[in-house]
Amino acid sequence: MREFKATGPVSNTLESHGSRLTTHDSNEIFIQVKDLVHIYNRGKRGEFRALSGVSLEIKKGEFLAVVGPNGSGKSTLIMHFNALLTPTEGEVIVGGLDTRDPRHIWEIRRQVGIVFQNPDNQIVSSLLEEDVAFGVENLGLPPEEVRERVEEALSLTGLSGVRDRPPHLLSGGQKQRLAVAGVLAMCPACLVLDEPSSMLDPAGRAELMETLVRLNRSGRVTVILVTHFMEDAARADKIIVMNEGRLVLTGPPDRVFAEHALLDEINLALPAAAEISRGLRRRGFPVPDGILSLDDLVSFLCRR
Amino acid sequence: MNNNPIIKVENLTHIYSPGTPFQVVSLEGISLEIARGEFFAVIGSTGSGKSTLVQHFNGILAPAKGKIWVCGADISDKRQRRDLWRRVGLVFQQPEQQLFEETVFDDVAFGPRNMGFDQDEVKRRVEKALQQMGLDPATVSGVPPFRLSGGMRRKVAIAGVLAMTPEVLILDEPAAGLDPQGRKQLMDLVEDFRREEGVTMVLVTHNMEEAALWTDRMAVLDKGRLVMEGSTREVFNKAGELRALGLNVPAPAQLMCKLRAAGKQVRTDVLTNEEAVEEIARLLSET
């Protein structure tokens, strides 16, 4: 695995357009994964090795993007972050707690909330508002606090206007935001999202991304985003690239997206700005590596 | 445009749960035509009525008001609507959730069997459809669908519709949730099928890059109304209007708009990265 250490703010020749998040100073490790192996149906028919020797550290307050082809082990990996799965070998420590110890499960799940790909699987109530409140009510909080948290989660996800709709009359994208709201209302220390954008329209995707960035910058929430959208991944502090159950690359976005040969090999696209820059280089124009956003590309082209 | 559209929608209105407190006017006053053989996209923000619209095209939904003709059949007429499923294939969102047979073969064979074909013809159709979806009939036919990966299950589900050789194929977010490579592969397969069989294709998508890459014409919905219609290039040259609707133009077109805003004389109606490279190369060579 190639690993690039982030050395403070990324030093490249481009002016930052604020499109990348600030690197967090906090060095406190929130999730530590050591030599993680996960085998489904071990010793049975259909045995499948989904993760092989994955090690990584996620810092408190970090915004981490997880990318890689379908079937590369991304979803299996994140299910270890709140003990939905436990290691076949190796260990996962979340907020100082070992996921293999059953006594820690509820504390770990209180700290780490996961939003899955398919929102239909996690909607439980017949009214939107009740659905958001479902988890919070079970925490035994005073009604006032429940109301406040539900309000905040609805407004953060832009659902206040449809609060009294039954979920089955929501669109696919609205359901996806509802699932995010339900988890947000729990005020987790760490929010994990497994391809939340796959059913969202461009504005919904941009809004969700801004919501995540805002939450993360407020310093309250560590965000782990599994995504196929390289533009979104490019906005994270750090990217990890998975392939065939292994972690093959990790580092800040500009370093990761400079590894063209490796990314091509596993069929991973670059953000559009990087792809277009690459096309221009091939045509003989000296466009530097490390351009990840359209704004950076525009300012480079205008300075020439 | 062809004078004889395969789908003709006239002043369509659809209301969910009419007469209840949850009544939602989902479509209002939609009129459009889709020509035979066209690759047509329906785009719009979530909840704009895209899925509701296309579910009228094979008679799953009937219009509250207005008229729709598909393959010459008036879908308001129950008798005419009844046989439409043979001619118009609809692939729902996440179709892999609807696989229910014990083997891949039986699942793909479900449609052709219902159409009354004999065993040999059913077998021929199943094998062809699996091949058209890039699957090897010999290896997957006997496998239970749940043993396959999500991407393969999606292909099996689509093969089940292809095996009915529809004249019109409607795909509602066919590639959602697949990785970029899987998306491209699926769309390549679908495009090959379109060319081979000469079917009319209607694609519902949130992915602007995908619409730009594959389709000839587009309709844009907003809150149940048709707000734009035109060639894909024309529609994607209206970045401001699309953004106001919660949509966007493909990334390469966004780039060109930004360059234009910064005072550069560039075309903004580009659809692909390659076209953007071409246009910027022209700009750089001039200066």
Task: Describe what this molecule looks like in 3D.
The complex is a heterodimer of chains A (304) and B (287). Chain A is of the alpha/beta class and 304 residues long. Chain A has one domain: 3-Layer(aba) Sandwich (Rossmann fold), CATH 3.40.50.300. Chain A is 33% helix and 21% strand. Chain A contains eleven helices and eleven strands. Chain A has helices at 74-79, 105-111, 128-137, 143-156, 172-184, 202-217, 230-233, 253-256, 260-265, 272-282, 294-303; strands at 2-3, 29-40, 48-59, 63-67, 89-94, 97-98, 112-115, 190-194, 222-226, 238-243, 246-251. In chain A, the strands form two sheets. Chain A has a seven-stranded mixed sheet with strand order 1-11-10-4-9-8-7. In chain A, strands 3-2-5-6 form a four-stranded antiparallel sheet, with no helix packed on it. The two termini of chain A are 37 Å apart. With 287 residues, chain B is of the alpha/beta class. The model of chain B has no long low-confidence stretch (mean pLDDT 92). Chain B is built from twelve helices and ten strands. Chain B has a six-stranded mixed sheet. Chain B folds into three domains: 1-87 and 168-175 and 201-240, Rossmann fold; 90-165, no CATH class; 250-287, no CATH class. At the A-B interface, helix 5, helix 6, helix 10 and helix 11 of A face helix 7, helix 11 and helix 12 of B.
| CATH structural class of the largest domain in chain B | Alpha Beta
Averaging pLDDT over every residue of chain A, what do you get? 87
What's the alpha carbon Rg of chain B, rounded to whole Å?
A: 20 Å
Instruction: Work out the helix count of chain A.
Output: 11
- The share of residues in helices of chain B is 25-40%
Under the CATH scheme, which architecture of the largest domain in chain B would be assigned? 3-Layer(aba) Sandwich
Largest beta sheet: strand ordering of chain A:
1-11-10-4-9-8-7
Q: How much helical structure, as a percent, in the residues of chain A?
A: 25-40%
The CATH homologous superfamily of the largest domain in chain B is termed: P-loop containing nucleotide triphosphate hydrolases
User: How far apart lie the N and C ends of chain A?
Assistant: 37 Å
The total tally of domains of chain B equals: 3
